[in-house]
Design brief:
Layout: E1 7-13, E2 17-21, H1 41-51, E3 59-63, E4 68-71, E5 75-83, E6 87-88, E7 91-92, E8 98-101, E9 106-108, E10 114-122, E11 158-160, E12 188-194, H2 203-211, E13 214-220, E14 224-228, E15 242-243, E16 248-250, E17 258-260, E18 267-268, E19 272-276, H3 278-284, E20 292-297, H4 300-311
Parallel strand pairs: 12-20
Antiparallel strand pairs: 1-4, 1-11, 2-3, 3-10, 4-9, 5-8, 5-10, 6-7, 6-9, 12-19, 13-14, 13-20, 14-17, 15-18, 16-17, 16-19
Length: about 325
């Protein structure tokens, strides 16, 4: 039983998938344990920033809504990411800004209006025992989360806090800047670093890859997102399995690309077009089935410049191996 003095929320209704996510589990892929962490790093980072937390502080990732929480104490929270018609005491909850919640009040998430995943950060952070150096919840591997065994939230769960009160003065912003609030329903262009086996694809396939419009398939989860469009053909018929990075775009024999995300397998044997940037992988994770996307090649220097600009928004930067 959790120490009541440190309980922040009680789960009144669990919804389909609510998981605890810190920055992710690093240094474990050589033993076959995947990364985990927030599918949308951008929204996760802003939730922590607005709540006054350091980079890496555990946050709730709420997929497709359905979650209802009751505060056990006065709290400062921030909800970013998808518009899951969040409400506070049956009134619309402001997104991308700091909000005070009193003990006994409820926060709920309904049906998705735009995007797929919302992020709820509480000032002081949620608390759980790390497994292999992280509390990131990976259901498939039964690792992390509030219980350490990769279990999604269930009705009646108590969500404990790292500190008894609330708001830290480290967050200067009460609300995220307008340019940092994505329109998840808008047409999307994803930046891809060409590499791996890209030279082994046919010329027509390369033209189609970067000029065709791709549709997000129904087969999309935290492991990866399948894109439907023209079939891409590669001259490689077999290859030795390689390590798979976050955002890698594999092309299986059916020619339909798969962008691999946080809960991906650690090795794979399909040829790859290259790798989505971290921010593009984050945006893709918010796409509902049927969303139209395009791929755009980007150079390493441009991608690094974009990432550094993004990281410059935050008060506490991670160590280099956790970016």
């Amino acid at each position: 039983m959790a120490n009541r003095a440190m309980v922040g929320f009680r789960v009144m209704r669990a919804g389909p998938l609510a998981l605890l996510q810190d920055a992710g589990r690093f240094g474990t892929r050589h033993i076959g344990v995947t990364q985990g962490g927030p599918a949308d790093m951008h929204a996760w980072a802003w939730a922590n920033q607005l709540a006054g937390n350091q980079w890496g502080t555990p946050v709730l990732e709420v997929t497709l809504g359905g979650l209802e929480l009751e505060a056990e104490r006065d709290l400062t929270i921030a909800v970013t990411g998808a518009d899951l018609t969040a409400r506070h005491q049956n009134q619309p909850l402001p997104l991308w800004r700091r909000v005070r919640i009193a003990a006994g009040e409820r926060v709920s998430f309904g049906a998705p209006a735009a995007g797929v995943r919302a992020y709820l950060a509480v000032s002081g952070g949620f608390k759980a025992e790390p497994v292999l150096g992280s509390v990131a919840c990976v259901v498939r591997e039964q690792l992390g989360g509030f219980d350490g065994h990769g279990r999604k939230l269930e009705e009646g769960d108590q969500l404990t806090l790292s500190s008894a009160e609330g708001f830290s003065p480290h967050a200067a912003e009460a609300e995220a800047p307008v340019p940092e609030k994505p329109d998840y329903s808008a047409p999307l262009t994803l930046d891809l670093l060409p590499g791996a086996q890209i030279a082994d694809f046919t010329g027509k396939s390369l033209f189609d890859a970067f000029n065709a419009s791709w549709q997000v398939d129904q087969r999309a989860d935290r492991m990866g997102v399948r894109l439907s469009g023209p079939a891409l053909r590669c001259n490689i018929t077999s290859m030795v399995s390689e390590g798979i990075s976050m955002g890698a775009v594999q092309v299986p024999p059916d020619g339909q690309p798969i962008a691999l995300l946080n809960d991906r397998q650690t090795i794979g044997g399909y040829p790859r077009l290259g790798n989505l940037t971290a921010l593009s992988a984050s945006r893709l994770s918010q796409c509902q089935p049927g969303h139209q996307v395009r791929l755009r090649p980007i150079g390493f220097e441009a991608a690094l410049r974009e990432h550094r600009q993004f990281m410059g928004n935050f008060s506490f930067l991670p160590s280099s191996n956790n970016i």
